[in-house]
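Blackboard transcription, Thursday session:
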Amino acid sequence: MHQHKRNSQWTQQLVFVGPALIFFALIIVVPFLLGLYYSFTDWNGVSGEVAWVGLDNYKQILTNDTVFRDSFWFTAKFTVLGVVFTNVLGFALAYFLTKKLKSRNFLRTVFFMPNVIGGLLLGFIWQFIFVKGFAAIGDVTGISFFNLPWLGTENTAFWAIVIVFVWQTAGYLMVIYISSLNNVPKDILEAAEIDGASRGQVLRSIIIPLIMPAATVCLFLAISWSFKMFDLNLSLTKGGPFGSTESVAMNIYNEAFSKNRYGLGTAKAIIFFIIVAVITTLQVRLTKSKEVEA
Amino acid sequence: MDITKNNRISLAITEIIMLLVAILFLIPFYFLFVNSVKSFGDLLTNAASLPKSIEWGNYARAFEITNFPSAFLNSFVITIVSNVLLVLVSAMAAYRMVRQNTAFNRILFVIFVAAMVVPFQSIMIPLVKVTSTVGLMNSIPGLIVCYLGFGIPMSVFLLHGFVKSIPLEIEEAATVDGTNAYGVFFRIVLPLMKPMLVTVFILNALWIWNDYLLPSLILQSPELRTIPIATFAFFGQYTKQWDLALPALVMGVLPIIVFFLMMQKYIIEGITQGAVKG
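(Written on the board underneath:)
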């Protein structure tokens, strides 16, 4: 009887958890460990012979790879600006949409809509807007902002990607901020109003501290989206002009699949993983410590 | 009296400003749709104006070149099958991991949570090696297996939190009535998990439908192309041919926009749910 029960527990564990464990192990764990190993080798992806090179790949990347360094600075700069703008806009939209506007539902639909379209298609759509659409607006209005060679120079191409990223992601963060704003207790807001607090004071001293849990999530999402960006700049600028908008993800891709330096590519991938893990953990710790309860 | 009047005025001003921002958000869609039916010459001379004549022929040509029905069907099958399996496999694992709180299951859960931080790009290179070794390359079932692997950590995480909120008494009553563990799960627990299953389904559907990088690594044959891959291949061949490219893009974005407009309520709820738990 006892033996039988233990057997059936084993079978149940296998039936319920087994499939998830197998797929997870095959697709994430094995490649991750293999990648760790390959990052210490000169693997070229094709030949069966793989030689151990120790820390050479890492040394090469950290001391002698200006393209990787540039792609890292591009990604870092983009992440900072992208995260700030998309959160500020997302919060602002949410803040006004929680007021009693007649067109509230329509507005929410519009602001969220860009997000359901994938980065690759969005990049192509905006390529047309920057090349032809902006020029047409510039001709009609005479505003020089629209007549800039948007995708042609390093500086404007950078801002072009920031614009599209913010347009795409602000609506998603808005949805999260809206639900958080709706949970701010009405009585606290009313009490503050009766006490004569200005709107700015209410926002700064009551609303923002109370929505910090949403901010934790939104910052986390925005950081990981922008740090891992690949599709959007692939279709919008192909990393150009002159490689100035090549993100780290793209650099890793090119190292392996264009230059066939798989060993070097996996070492970059490991460095990338460590950076993402450290930054997101720090951010979550930091914003979590700012969370308060009503 | 004065205060309410002031309030109403400031509300009206807010409304107008927000509507203007909404127009700003919609301008890219205007450019996309309007120019997709223009002749090439019309499109080059003025991209901002309404079309002089409507050229549906653009769509017919783009439809043929991208082989749109095939791309749509591939995207559709991949998204639906991956998602159904993903939701089922994750729900089973999450249920067991909550109800049998063994050391093994606790450690596994921590590993799943940790894996959510791993960026796709940091394992894609060895992944290609693994998938070709086990014969998952260049096949739709192979791609679906990859989606199961990548989707499991977050799906289990979200469902795990939800199972915890399901009262144990219902299951105990069923066990006393003689239902076995599988019956309890499929007939009682799974239906109770429905709200979170919908959330997980929607979050994963948006991700898988729009994903470009993974299918571009796994699928090589032209007949296996999904919508993003077909669009990318098309742009490689017809650079600057906007009279073909724009209709192709419209067809590419239309299915997901229609899905969004129909399922909006669930999508917004799903994101909120996902964020609260995440």
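Lecturer's comment: Chain B has a mean pLDDT of 90.
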